[in-house]
Specification:
By secondary structure, the chain is an all-alpha fold. Helix content is about 75%, strand content about 0%.
Length: about 150
């Protein structure tokens, strides 16, 4: 193992963490008092996910610690809200590295965050939790509400 690859194991995939936890999505629905609103939030989250990851990549490549921290906090917080706990944990680990100004290990972990984002998208599609925004806007709340 090279010195670079041994620097950081913080952001490695942890199979013990949920890729997309439906219980957390239900909690969000309870907080919002609407499953339709939780679905809208998840759909918006998934739509914005590639752009959020690219903001992280851009900040790393520019060695911009402040922008990186903001991007990681944003993605980590939103990930928690939809139950993407693995992605949230990766953001937390990278945020800790960013605070030390260690950009080389973060660069090495960019494929990890991209892969985690891809797993979240795939999990949402696989479980049917990803709903097109247009279908939510036209569906009556009574069909989307869970009691």
């Amino acid at each position: 193992m090279s010195a670079l690859t041994s620097i950081n194991k913080t952001a490695d995939h942890d199979p013990g963490l949920a890729i997309l936890n439906p219980v957390r999505l239900q909690s969000l629905a309870d907080e919002l008092e609407s499953f339709a609103e939780a679905q809208r939030f998840l759909s918006a989250y998934l739509q914005m996910l590639p752009e959020r990851v690219e903001r992280i990549v851009d900040a790393v490549m520019d060695h911009d610690e402040e922008r990186l921290t903001v991007a990681l906090l944003s993605l980590g917080t939103a990930s928690n809200m939809v139950g993407a706990f693995e992605l949230e944990a990766i953001c937390g680990g990278l945020k800790n590295l960013a605070a030390t100004g260690s950009f080389i290990p973060i660069v090495l972990d960019l494929p990890v965050i991209r892969a985690a984002a891809a797993r979240v998208r795939a999990a949402a599609l696989w479980t049917g939790q990803c709903v097109r925004q247009e279908s939510l806007e036209s569906a009556p709340d009574s069909l989307l509400e869970r009691t």
